[in-house]
Amino acid sequence: MTRGILATDLDGTLIPLDRNAQQVADLQQLGQLLKQHEVTLSYVTGRHLASVQQVRKDERLPAPDWMICDVGTSLYSCQGNSSPILVPEYSEHLAALTTDMPREDLRRLLGSLNGLRLQEAEKQGPFKLSYYAQANDLDHLVPEIEDLLIRESAPYSLIHSVDPFNNDGLLDLLPRGVSKSYALDWWTKFLDTAPEQILFAGDSGNDLAPLTSGFRGILVGNADRRLAAEVAAAHQRAGWTDRLFLATQAASSGVLEGCHAFGLFDATKS
Fold first, then answer.
1. What Rg value do the Cα atoms of the chain yield, rounded?
2. Apex 7 CA angle, 3 and 29, nearest 5
């Protein structure tokens, strides 16, 4: 029988909140079950590679088979606990999407805007240009950037949010249409796997797309209730009645709860 696939966000989802004892215990149980039932594990995160590797060590996360990082702009294979290897086919695909305006040209284009501060070098990527801004400046910066992208026919789209820990405005420019959901969809085709095999777990706004793209989804209990309502409404409009589980438990405990609800481990018993 084909193995199941768990694709999960990290912060607020797989990672225990404040090292909560129950969530830490459930995380360890989840890791054991994933291994026992040979479930493929993929991280799907906005973090860059070095940050993922550090938090995996700090939080003792289960070893992934794959990693989608940088908000969907990088894909790594980690087969057999090996060091992550960038998947060249995905990088080539993204390069083709941005042929008309490479990242450095985009950076020059945005150089005329006030209020943007480049994020640290390690948070950038070949297909991801990231800035900080004052959170209260986002209301005017976001439409200003979006108008500029349209005016210059730039093959990029903007994802923005506010860091809940320090209230920084975060702006990521990615190849047009690329997101966690886009990367998951490409990866599914790359593996020649049916989308129905993927179980995605998330908690925040940048998980909205994969939670509403037709994959089976777990929304952990600590997710914003407005997001939960939006995801549930999207499933209702699409006529999906069995693709979403709203966990009552938070973070890693919610992921484990959702895996059981979908029978992920039962379905992969030999």
1. 18
2. 75
| Count of Cβ atoms closer than 10 Å to residue 131 Cβ | 24
Burial 84-111 (b: 16+ CB within 10 A, else e): beebeebbebbeebbeebebeebeebbe
- 63, 76 in Cβ contact below 8 A? no
Q: What is the mean pLDDT of residues 70-92?
A: 90
Give the burial string for 205-236 (b: 16+ CB within 10 Å, else e): bbbbbbbbbbbbbbbbbbbeeebbeebeeebe
Which domains does the chain carry?
Answer: 5-73+180-268 (3.40.50.1000), 99-175 (3.90.1070.10)
- Helix (H) / strand (E) element for 200: namely strand 198-202
Q: What is the pTM of this model?
A: 0.91
- Nearest Cα neighbor of 28 from 44, 38, 17, 15 is 15
Quote the CA–CA distance of 28 and 22 in Å, as a whole number: 10
Rounded CA-CA distance 64/39 in Å is: 10
Q: Report d(CA 165, CA 102) in Å as an integer.
A: 32
Q: Tens of pLDDT along 83-133? A: 899 999 999 999 999 999 999 999 999 998 999 999 999 999 999 999 999
- Segment holding 198, helix H or strand E: strand 198-202
CA distances from 166 to 88, 100, 106, 255 (A): 35, 36, 27, 26
